[in-house]
Amino acid sequence: MKIGGLQKFSLIDFPQKSSAIIFTQGCNFRCEYCHNPELVYYNLFKIPIPVEQIFSFLETRTKQLDAVVITGGEPTYQPDLIDFIKKIKSMKYLIKLDTNGSNPEIIKKIIDEQLIDFIAMDIKATFDKYSYVSCVPVDIEKIKTSIEIIKNSHIKFEFRTTYDRTKLLSTDIEKMKEFFTQDINYRIQHCNTIKH
Ligand code: SF4
Question: pTM above 0.90?
Answer without folding.
Answer: yes
